[in-house]
Amino acid sequence: MELILVNIIDGLVTGLLLFMLSAGLTLIFSMMGVLNFAHASFYMLGAYFAYQISIALGFWMGLLIAPLIVGVLGAGVERYGLRRVHQYGHVPELIFTFGLALLIEELVQFIWGKNQMPYSVPEILNFTAFSIAGNSIPAYKIFMIFTSVAIFIGLLYILTKTRVGMIIQAALSYPRTVEALGHNVPLIFMGVFGVGTALAGVAGVIAGPVLGTFPGMAFVLGSIVFVTIVIGGLGSLWGALVASLLIGWITTFAKSYNIQMSDILNGIGISTPENLSENVFRDLWTVTSPQIADILPYILMVLILIFRPAGLFGKRHS
Amino acid sequence: MTDENLTTDPARPAQRMRAGSLSLTFTPWIVGGILLVLMPFIFTSNSALTIMNQMWITVIFALAYNMLLGQGGMLSFGHAVYAGVGGFACMHIMNASDFFSSLPLPVLPVFGGLFGMGLALIVGSFSTRNAGTVFAMISLGVGELIAACSVIIVAFFGGEEGISGDRTYAMPFFGNEFLQQIDVYYLTSFWVLLSAALMYLWSRTPVGRMANAVRDNPERAEFLGYSARWVRFYSFVASGFFAGVAGGLFAINYEILTEENLNTTSSGVILLVTFLGGVGFFFGPIIGAVAFTLLQTVLSLQTELWAFYAGTLFVATVMFFPGGLAGLMMMHVPAFRLGKANHLIVPYIKTLIPGFIGILGLCALVEMTFHFRHAATGDNEMTLFWTTFDSHTILPWIIAIAVTAIGLGIARATAPALKEAWNEANTAGGAA
């Protein structure tokens, strides 16, 4: 029971972190119809900038300034890169963001080298908040949960209750009409892209100390983020939330409970073959759940795409 | 540029080449075949043979990839798995000694192709429902899934260390056991010519033609009575076959396959190669594969930063020349037809050479910065463009900055003249 609670908290941290990335990504997608492949790269940039700033000014200034820089960079990418490529169509846009992801990774290696940066949890949060049956929960995890929830509520408030949010929502569905009403839609697009990448930057700042700040961090998380928004349904904010939490919990639980395939197969009445090392399916028999925890999201995605192509909360589209 | 290239308009000269009859296109194949035979006599060293083998394998793979991207409008982020699975299957055949000893080696890539095709049949059955973003996402997911499986399913993928085999156990092919690199070279050359010809012929079949139609306007194709989904499916399966052939050749050439042949990085590389070469034309990926392999082997010997340059080149291509190298070449066809191409030579020299020198200067700055930041302390000497100097003194920096500024400055100043000459060369009439 206690272990379940610990895992729920761990899964929540992972899920909310994923959500911070997928929220920005899905907002950008529903607005411009372009999937930003470089989204996780902005997350990485957030972590690296925050590390660099934290050396000089401390963690909290990093949390404040790094997402701003990332957001400005993102807006610049939209203004001078994507908008130019947009005229060629969606596929070149996707290829452009893919190339950008490659380039940012190389750039990070160029500036900071290939090794992991010693970016660590600030002193003030480096203590045990409470413990559940001997499993200590660090305060930083609680901080991560509260930060992401606060950002989510803020985003929801801005999008649904303020005038700016109304215009953004209107621009999502009827960009032409909104333009005709005198709003600068390209500017809104640029702003949303900037805010989306800034959110990824925030995620990077707070995840960097825990998950490690290294050049491969974008790659590790990047494809999972895509899987998340595909499972949730492209363009659906709620879908992104549900899918993020789902993936967070599934991977956490799969990692902490050592479920063996042979037990399951024995349980449903198939007995283990005699000389296992000679058997063609020997790998199937020896698979354990921690082994496949990282590929469970992909399996889930393939299943979703086969049986419900629009995703969990997505609208059906042609 | 891409938009113009991707629509089939027979009235445009550049398009006429693509939509041309078969008779027009025999010459390049014969020239290509002769070149393939003669290359080993020009470049005799073993390393050159290795590079050429790798080049031809990349050519097949890139052409197969372009069947999807260029001809079918489907962007795949996980195409390496089809080549990889084909290669792994060939490796297992190589290790099945009874069967392998009754099989001539040149036939082996067919099996790679069949396995690649088999996987494409399964994946294509659900992934080709949509083109565009959804297809790209599925391909990424499936690619990651299979790449991740390679560490788990040790029986087939061999885990971390991969699996290896020995090609010489095959049935001797007219007495040849493929012991030497040159034998493998001719085997690869045979396959590159055959596969390229088959893929070209495929693009001329009704299915290949319909793939173009579905790419440009799926709705209209549906109204004409063609199922867009099936057309995509056929392209996908055919592409999987040729990717598998490339994988089989990889297995023969390197005799080892690992997880690296499956992962997203290799899928990304083939996208890069194809796009760099140009997706709008059949021969684009060939140029891309040759250029990229050369770039990779030459640059990676010279600098640690070659991936950075390749990435920059890629992003620049997407932003400024979406037609790729092939698109750039075909842009000049109208000028040649008008007989005004010679008007372009002088402006080109005036702009491109300073521009090139400026870019080299920029590269020097990048290299020096890299050395300044990352070299071991005390190691101040670096060698660049055949000169050795101290990267911690001010003089080399001044020279590099000056070269960059002057080179790019001249290029910038002469660009309007080039543009004018370009417009002039592409306008009919006037003083020729």
From TrEMBL, chain A:
Subcellular location: Cell membrane
CDD domains linked: TM_PBP1_LivH_like
Keywords from the named record: Amino-acid transport, Cell membrane, Membrane, Transmembrane, Transmembrane helix, Transport
An MF annotation (GO) of this entry: transmembrane transporter activity
Listed transmembrane segments: 12-37, 49-73, 94-112, 139-160, 181-207, 213-231, 238-257, 295-314
GO cellular component: plasma membrane
Superkingdom assignment: Bacteria
Main location: membrane
The keyword Cell membrane belongs to this UniProt entry's keyword annotation: yes
Topological category with respect to the lipid bilayer: Multi-pass membrane protein
Alphabetical GO biological process terms: amino acid transport
Family: Belongs to the binding-protein-dependent transport system permease family. LivHM subfamily.
Protein name, entry field: Branched-chain amino acid ABC transporter permease
Species for this entry: Sulfitobacter sediminilitoris
Automatic annotation (TrEMBL), chain B:
A UniProt-annotated Pfam family: BPD_transp_2
InterPro entries noted in UniProt: ABC_transp_permease, LivM-like
Membrane topology qualifier: Multi-pass membrane protein
Subcellular location: Cell membrane
GO MF assignments: branched-chain amino acid transmembrane transporter activity
Main location: membrane
Keywords: Cell membrane, Membrane, Transmembrane, Transmembrane helix
Cellular component, GO annotation: plasma membrane
Source organism superkingdom: Bacteria
Protein name, entry field: Branched-chain amino acid ABC transporter permease
